[in-house]
Here is the input.
Amino acid sequence: MRQVGDKKNSDYNTSGNPIDLVAALTAYDSLLSRYPTYKEGPQIQQVVIDGATYLSDDPAERYRIYVRQKLLFFERFNRNSEWARQNQDSPAVVKAADDSAAAYLETGARWLYSTARAANDREGVRRSLDYFVKFFQTYPERPQAYELNWSLATELRDLGDYERAYEEFMRVSNADRSQYREDAALEAVAAAQALVEMEQSGSRSPGRAQETQPPGGGR
Here is the structure.
């Protein structure tokens, strides 16, 4: 399948025929699905990412495909993946793939979030927040982890989920490395006050989202 993908990709580069590109990407995806621990998987997935942007004439759809493939890269090749576990004998290869996975996850999460916000798609916003959670659970040592945790907390606040927002603001306020500590502490107080007011009025906070663990594994 690798040879088939390479041949069709070469044909596409020569002919520009989109049929050759589709055949190449299909072969590559079949290879990665059938052999998820294939050592050169990250390079193959990168070819798919680069090629996927040519699969549609619609710029918005092209970018959606691009983002989906980036998020798939994260799922397949992040530090906790089966691929990473099976290739521990090549730490440099695993680290390079994981660095790409982190960058792609952050890019994808931010794009999904901003797109959903622009469309006033509340359910889409909630789905995008799951990727924020994945980032700061997988990469707690990265500076972006606390920024995304802060964004998660503020969005939960804006969605009216004050109970969960309070928990996330408290998590950020207790994080030694977070630049948002003071603001998060103030927001936690405001969220707690909103909860009290809702209880007094008989209202309830919206349903709880996915449970999270603090970046760094603790407070």
